[in-house]
Amino acid sequence: MRGAGLRQILIFLSLVVLIPGLADGSEMQNPMFSELASGFDAEMKISAYGQQVKPSDSRLNPDNRFLKLSQSKAQVELRPELGLDFRRLALDVSPRLKGGWQRWESSPDENETDTDLESNLIYWRARLRALESVYISCGRENLQWGPSYLYSPSNPYFKDNGKQNPHLEIDGMDFARLVWLESDSVTISLIHLAGPGLQEFASDSFSQTTALKIDFVGDSMTLGTIVSRNFEDHQQIGAWGTWIASEGLLIYGEGALVRGTFGRYPRHSENVFGLALARTNQRANQWFPSALGGAAYTFYFGPTFVIEYLYYGPGYVNDQAEDYDRLLNTAKKAFISQGPDTSLGAQTLGFAADKGLRFLRQNYLLLQVHQSEVGNVFDYALRWTQNLDDGSGQLTLNGDLFVSDHVNLFSVSLFNFGRNQTEFKEIMDYSQMLGIKFLF
Amino acid sequence: MEGSKMSGGWKMLLLLMVISPFFGTSRAWAQPSAEAIIAKADQARGNVEGIEWTADIESVERHRKQQRTLIIRHRDDNNLAEFTSPRKVKGRKLLMKDRNMWFIKPGLRKPVPISPRQKLIGGAANGDIASTDYAGDYDAVLLGEEKIDDQLCYLFELTAIDGKVTYDRIHYWVSKDRNVAVKADFYTVSGKLFKSARFEHENWINVNGEKLPFVSRMIISNALVEDDVTTMTYSAVVVKPIPLAAFNLNLLVRH
Predict the structure, then answer these.
(1) What's the per-residue H, E or C state across B179-230?
(2) Between A61 and which of A43, A67, A143, B54 could a Cys-Cys bridge form, CB atoms 3.0 to 4.6 Å apart?
(3) More confident residue, A367 or B174
(4) A 295-334 residues with CB below 8 A of B?
């Protein structure tokens, strides 16, 4: 059992027991205890799910021999949420306890199983109202903004915006923030990423990053911009905006300019493959643009239809994609041959599996239809993501059924389509998650 | 019932009366001047630093009954609705700043911008729970006078100015005696009756020493499905200062 956050969890579990207890006892006479008790809030979710995965037999993961994805997985998670609002101070803590089981069904690990028990502090935050309109906070957070579903290019901190599978939590990172409410319309935030928190940086070396973010809210529109710089002199300028075009139509956009990239790109090499994946642009002065445009229309009868187009500048252009295809085919052959070049093949596949890019190519289209509270008990989202460059696509189906006020059944299905050498078919053919959530 | 374009004075009277179905005034004006009404409107709304109320929503849709409780906070053009029960929706928040809306769901750290048309529950759209500024959003024509439940009412036709509001056209009945909304019929672009609402104003708030009526119940009926009814009951109405931070997206998401 990993116990990095165990001590903090115990402290806050003690608070859970102590504060309501104090409120019921004689200390209730003390106005401060009464104030503490009224500002305390505790909730608990228990999430249990099973997941079935069919790895694709691709050049990146031939016969699942390289990535060795488990085909069956089950997990139970305890997700307490604790909060305390006390005068100028607000504390929030989200400890987690997770127990997991997984099983491999294909060679070379056929019928092997593994179990895991883990505890951590996925999120926490302490926030102080320093002045009437100035808030200072520190903690482990998942900071998200902007209107887009597919990807939030303006966010220099998190590549995943959590929209694809809302039942999996994104690990928090350690931030310090200063938020100044300049007016009802303008908010200025200074954000410093101080540590990786629970995020793993397999190939990207973590770097502290400081950003200045400005939000503006108008009558029927919002605008935002963020300028960031990390300790390796990486710079990014991002912006986003929404416009209520009519009562049912929302039009939005989001974009970023990034100087340099952590991504790995194919380049000529002296090795036996003649090509290698390398961080050729990491220190370059080249600016990479990304831009997303989208619209969401809500029909009178309920569903909302979303369309988004993404241009992802750091993605591979055609020449790079062709080199990447050649390199992966060579690396795959070397890896499965168990000959002298096996280790180079494995290293190349490893770099390919973790390229440091959110998308492989540059042009993407998202179509989505979603609706909440169907019959007041059912939420659904049906999403198609199309890689316009290599023709592969991904279908995602999310469903949430509230069978009672305290029990929620959910499913997340993901199907990939296209040739085996395309982006969405690189890792898996499909995955299916079924779960149940208890709310207390 | 004779339709006539409204004069400036009548339009200002309507402005005060329909500035929201939530607010009312305690007096009627026989021949009000525009200046007096503007001054009255400023007095009624301008100095309120915040108002909070509890909304119990009960919806019957296809014979299925659902209940939600929300705490709604309002200041200027800001509204925040926070679901408090049942447990399955507890912690969900709906933030409205002018016409911009966001939905914040516990567990999803990214607020989702949404349109006013998206459904809240049953027959209530998101736009229904806000104290909508009808006067700013609609052109009004006085159609005449009608009795609703023995109350003599003005009947106005409101037409959306720019299509950014929840409804394209509204027939709106306002009590002559109390200057509060009594009934509204909502129409789609194609002219079909979409839903109807009835209002009761049995709550009272004290603003700058003046007692003003405040909506206590809103009953929304689906015009197409007779049995589908959504009842919003408003209680615990409190006028109190609410800081602007309560409506700031950067501070609302818990992590």
Answers:
(1) CCEEEEEEECCCCCEEEEEEEECCEEEEECCEEEEECCEEEEEECCCCCCEE
(2) A67
(3) A367
(4) 296-298, 300, 302, 304
Of the candidates A162, A163, A168, A191, the one whose C-alpha atom is nearest the C-alpha of residue A178 is: A191
E strands present in A315-420: 363-374, 378-387, 393-402, 407-417
Chain B residues lying within 8 Å of A157, measured CB to CB: none
pLDDT band of B163, cuts 50, 70, 90: low
Q: Read out DSSP for A383-412?
A: EEEEETTT--EEEEEEEEEESSSSEEEEEE
pTM attached to this predicted model: 0.84
- Nearest chain A Cα distance for residue B1, angstroms: 30
The complex's ipTM works out to 0.84
- The Cα A148–Cα B161 span in angstroms is 29
**Rounded to whole angstroms, how far apart are CA atoms B198 and B185?**
9
Nearest to B62 among A144, A220, A375 (CB): A375
Q: Nearest chain A Cα to B122, which residue?
A: A376
Name residue B131's amino acid: S
Contact assessment for residue B154 and residue B180, using Cβ atoms and an 8 Å cutoff: no
Which DSSP symbol is given to A423? G
- Apex CA B123: angle with CA B117 and CA B126, to 5°? 35
pLDDT at A211: 96
Alpha-carbon gap, residue A408 to B65, rounded angstroms: 18
Q: What is the pLDDT of residue B14?
A: 40
The pLDDT assigned to A13 comes to 56
Check A376 against B64: CB less than 8 A apart.
Answer: yes
Q: Which residues of B touch A140 (CB under 8 A)?
A: 255
Confidence tier at A157 by pLDDT (50, 70, 90): very high
Nearest by CB: B61 against A132, A222, A376: A376
Model confidence at B210, pLDDT cuts 50, 70, 90, reads: confident
pLDDT tens profile A176-232: 999 999 998 999 999 999 999 988 876 557 889 999 999 999 988 999 999 999 877
* B254/A83 touch (CB, cutoff 8 Å), yes or no: yes
Chain A residues in contact with B93 by the CB 8 A cut-off are none
Identify the band that residue B105 occupies on the pLDDT scale cut at 50, 70 and 90.
confident
User: From CA A36, how far away is CA B101, in angstroms rounded?
Assistant: 32
Quick check: A93 and A141 in contact, CB under 8 A? no
- B164–A246 CB contact, under 8 Å: yes
Q: How many CA atoms lie within 13 A of B7 on its CB side?
A: 6
What residues have CB less than 8 Å from B153, skipping those under 6 apart?
A: B145, B146, B147, B173, B174, B175, B176, B182, B183
Quick one: DSSP state of residue A420? T
**Contact call for A166 and B107, based on CB within 8 A:** yes
Interface touch A217/B98, C-beta < 8 Å: yes
Cα distances (angstroms) measured from residue B74 to each of A16, B208, B238: 31, 17, 10
CA distance A245 to A252: 10
